[in-house]
Amino acid sequence: MEQMATEKRQMRCPACGQESWLVRTPRYEGFRRVGETLSCAMCGQEFGSEAEVELRAGGGRPQVFTEADRPGPVRLFEAGETDRMCRHCAEYVVNPFLQRCMLHQREVEATDTCPQFRARAEERGDG
Ligand SMILES: [Zn+2]
What we know:
Blueprint: E1 7-12, E2 19-29, E3 32-40, E4 46-47, E5 54-55, E6 92-94, E7 99-101, E8 106-107
Antiparallel strand pairs: 1-2, 1-5, 2-3, 3-4, 6-7, 7-8
The structure holds zinc ion.
């Protein structure tokens, strides 16, 4: 059985210097296989043998994305009105059953705003 499909192996091409693939293409003379052509997938440079290129172990693909390419955290609220919400206030206390303002001694919502707002210590200064 003759394999028609080309075989690719990861390598570093000495001709173009890129992380590339060595493409192995069977060569035919009429219907008779006379050998194979080894070439670079990136620049098309042909090689006489595998020894001419730097073959990579394993079949891993080149790493394109790195950690540095990730977008930063998305900020939902800009500084302003939302900064004065009870949930950021030093007087705001959360219990399993209710949320209280210790200053006004009453039940509040986390999203309430208050003229007597006092920023909680641990919320200040972002390093
Ligand atoms: Zn090349």
